[in-house]
Amino acid sequence: MTQDEQHLDLLSVFHYVVGGLTALFSCVFLLHLAMGIAMLCGAFDGADAPPEFFGWLFVIIPSILALAGWTLSGFIIAAGRKLKERTSYTLCLVVAGIECIVMPFGTVLGVFTLVVLSRESVKALFSGKQAVVPKHD
Question: Angle at which helices 52-85 and 89-99 pack, to 10 degrees?
Fold first, then answer.
């Protein structure tokens, strides 16, 4: 197993971990969603009750953010699988770039993935060709 193959396998495992963490942290928005549903159902009625508009904001925005986070985590996990299989070079490259917005682990993983994927020998692995690597003595 070459060093590039080892790097791709490690990146694959780390993509699974970061994808799982992203999905887990995206669930935080469900608390806000529950609060919005409670507002709409009248749990906060009284003299200082918030307007119904705030309840809808607390339903719509967290729903969009949770779905976006889960979608991103799905793409991160899919990129990890594609890295392991050495297929879909463009998908892995795009996900590595987008992954940089997931602070702090996604940023580190995205940068390392971009560095590894930019090597000519790794591009050859994805195209199915074996790269000829000059040996330095």
Answer: 140
Whether residue 136 has pLDDT greater than 90: no
Residue 132 lies in a domain: no
135 found inside a domain: no
* Long-range contacts of 30-36, Cβ-Cβ distance < 8 Å, separation of 24 or more: 30/62, 30/66, 32/58, 32/61, 32/62, 33/58, 33/59, 33/62, 33/63, 33/66, 36/60, 36/62
pTM for the full predicted model: 0.87
- In a domain, residue 136? The reply is no
- C-alpha 68/C-alpha 10 separation (Å) is 26
* Structure-block tokens of residue 105: 């682990």
Q: Give per-residue pLDDT as tens, 67-104.
A: 999 999 999 999 999 999 999 999 999 999 999 998 89
Q: How far apart are CA 83 and CA 93, in angstroms?
A: 10
How many domains does the chain contain in total?
1
